[in-house]
Model the fold of this input.
Amino acid sequence: MKVLGLVASPRKLGNSEIIVREMMKVLPADWQKDLLRLNDLRIDRCKACYACLAAGRRCIIKDDLNFFLDQILAADKVILAAPVYFLGPQTTLKLINDRMISIQNDTAAYATGKQCVIVIPHTVNGWEGYARESSMHFARFLNLNVTGVLTVRATLPGDVTKCEKFADIRRLAASLIDGSTLDFTPADQICCPDCGSSLLQIFRRNAWRCAICDCTGSWKAGDNEFKLRRSDDAHRRFTPEGMAEHGRTLTQIKDEYIARREEVKTMQLPYQKAAAVWLEPAGD
Ligand SMILES: Cc1cc2nc3c(=O)[nH]c(=O)nc-3n(C[C@H](O)[C@H](O)[C@H](O)COP(=O)(O)O)c2cc1C
Done:
């Protein structure tokens, strides 16, 4: 068994790294345990060229993205520790996420349902923002099967060892051994019944939608009660079928661009020399 520990923090021996190393200690001695510090990778920004949009085609940017994807393909289980930065994920997660278009047309290679558990350290209560959801969908866009997400309070490097949920971190690691699912959402919090996200859009007329997985349904409010019902035919973005469907949509957009390329140029032309100037940093 090969487990890959992803550390999404620039800090060496920070809370994320300590979390992953602690979890590795729980795992059987004969498992192969690899660590990857995402901030050590050279990951450029997506250029929106769509060159990767064909099954088996990889991103053409020459950096460490494909090395990263190879590690995901080679792993049997994945641990992700990713701190909250300004209510969201640390930059590298977003940089890598934006480069995942190629995966949408390669569902067969990635859709292996590998187990993934996630821990999110942060400092201030109520400042978790959308970091939990962004880490979850980072893993789900990689077709990983997220079976447990834990948010923990930790500020200075190492503080996590003193946090009250430290035992839960070890429990989460143990769940990788028996393949079980652990739900750490507070009992009174209402989350998406499909993906566990707390980013629910609530509409008048009793409708709701999960902003992350696109699941929809109806809601009912009563005395001290708020209940969600999931539609039987709700769309499921993070399934191999949902991902493949999105891959086909992106391919259609690319084909449309090729077909309408001249028209696109015509629309752009009047703006090429619009009355404004680009600002540029002076440099040293
Ligand atoms: C740039 C920056 C932004 C941060 N933003 C938040 C935040 O929005 N909410 C929060 O609770 N903690 C925030 N933190 C605190 C970190 O999430 C916290 O210290 C965490 O334990 C860091 O994990 P690490 O040691 O693995 O890097 C921020 C830290 C930094 C450096």
Q: What stands out?
A: Residues 9, 11, 14-16, 83-87, 121-124, 127, 129, 154-155, 157 surround flavin mononucleotide (CB under 6 Å). The first strand starts at residue 2 and ends at 7.
